[in-house]
Inverse folding.
């Protein structure tokens, strides 16, 4: 099967399952929780979990859909809380949860999805030993995501962030949940420790690649492609790898921390391009994707392993 | 052993364990998470978990300390998030987390303790089947607590709350976590389903009794005894059982939604007392405590069962 077909089919079955459980949410709290969850999304973390299980087990992982949902629930809970912290008003083309229901209910809506994630993980068809391991793995990932988000927030006030700081932040904020998705797939499918560690490394590194590509898309893609305002990271003074590398090269981006016209953004891109920064950031993402793919060499070949390899490439080639 | 001695000794060993894990927190996020956790507290939920395990197993449950901590971590996470929602500035004699570190870090500090709760629960010495059951139970309790807190917030805008609404809210907001504490103790100690259900009902009903007594303390106790301003619930228009019963009897408390002198509070108490409200609320708490104790009749007699029975009585007799 082609990667795109797999991702489309998984998106459809995840959407169906989410609709079954959260489509007719009862009460304001569950409506608030279901709001972003049912507003779409590429469902990449569930896909990585299912593919990892299938690559280990060499057979369908449809019975692990509850665990795949647990990852999407976790991801959505972090989005709801992040939107409060960042004061964002729109996501996935809809108003953010706190914009509609207010902050108290939004905090609680995130907390409820957090609980549901652990509940769903425990109802997957797998043996209890694997489930306990999976719960520990998810809990660790949640703590990592919180640490990463807190680093990200604290970075905005600092001007001494190194590439190493950036890497640690993005490994935690984005990499950890992809790592958990892949590893939990391996765990629940009965994989051995070598396979589980390999899948964890695959998820961690492709997650970092995904985030670096996201930073590039924010700068380079048009507003229509990305669904966000162009160059919002630079305008908000975010410490992305682009900003870190610019500072290392003596390029001061702080004058761009303001509204810019399209022409101004274009000349800023040209400036960063001339300094070699965009190429270096791309190379960084490519290196991470290669590391991710290399980790999978311990798995025997299969259609699903190939799709995982393709996903790592997709993460750094996608334009939106 | 006497109940008070047991509670004191458990408080001490829980404090010690918390200090071991969170006493030298590294980084702002973990410092924020440890702040309320290390600021004291009666550690009643851990005590209920350990006693329940000991009553089932008829032996020490010291090996379940990690699980007992999971309950305290969960309780503390809900306090941190509640304080943000309620805009409270002090708790346990120290400033609230968001007052010191700001809302974003406080949200994340709660989220980190939430993750740690599940991690700790999974590291208790118990068999995997029991741990999976315990994780489901804790996740369900967390969802209940969120629902209860959301009901509590929404009640403040309403004037049609019935006793049944109040009971549902308080069962979720306070009862659910005591229920989970008792049931998880039974689960991890290898109890059968009859014992686990009995312990759940014990925790649920004694938790409700605890909360009703808390509402009475808020009204009747002096500021020195309760550590809070007197009659803060009535002054803030909270829908406690006292407020619900007052409305049922045609007593309008809304004029008291303001600062009051001690003399004014004393005459308000006299008014509520004359209408029989304080006696009725006390009777309600007593009934819940009796229901809690009755549930334990399926457990064979032991010192620990007796302490659990004493705790139910303590919950409705304590003055602070």
């Amino acid at each position: 099967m082609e990667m795109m077909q797999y991702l489309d089919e998984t998106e459809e079955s995840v959407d169906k399952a989410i609709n079954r459980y959260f489509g007719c949410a009862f009460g304001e709290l569950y409506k608030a929780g279901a709001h972003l969850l049912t507003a779409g999304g590429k469902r990449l973390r569930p896909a990585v979990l299912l593919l990892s299980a299938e690559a280990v087990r060499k057979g369908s992982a449809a019975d692990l859909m509850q665990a795949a949902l647990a990852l999407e629930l976790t991801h959505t809970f972090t989005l709801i809380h992040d939107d409060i912290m960042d004061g964002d008003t729109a996501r996935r083309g809809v108003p953010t949860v706190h914009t509609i229901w207010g902050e108290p209910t939004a905090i609680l809506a995130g907390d409820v999805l957090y609980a549901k994630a652990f509940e769903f993980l425990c109802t997957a068809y797998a043996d209890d030993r694997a489930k306990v391991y999976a719960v520990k793995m998810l809990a660790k990932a949640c703590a990592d995501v919180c640490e990463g988000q807190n680093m990200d927030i604290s970075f905005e006030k600092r001007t001494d962030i190194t590439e190493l700081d950036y890497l640690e932040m993005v490994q935690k904020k984005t990499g950890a949940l992809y790592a958990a998705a892949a590893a939990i797939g391996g765990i629940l499918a009965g994989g051995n420790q070598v396979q589980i560690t390999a899948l964890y490394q695959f998820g961690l590194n492709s997650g970092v690649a995904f985030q670096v590509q996201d930073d590039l898309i924010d700068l380079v893609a048009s507003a229509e492609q990305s669904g966000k305002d162009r160059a919002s990271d630079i305008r908000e003074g975010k410490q992305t790898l682009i900003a870190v590398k610019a500072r290392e090269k003596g390029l001061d981006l702080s004058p761009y921390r303001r509204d810019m016209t399209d022409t101004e953004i274009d000349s800023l891109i040209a400036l960063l391009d001339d300094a070699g920064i965009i190429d270096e950031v791309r190379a960084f993402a490519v290196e991470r994707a290669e590391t991710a793919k290399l980790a999978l060499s311990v798995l025997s070949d299969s259609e699903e392993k190939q799709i995982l390899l393709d996903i790592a490439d997709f993460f750094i080639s996608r334009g939106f």
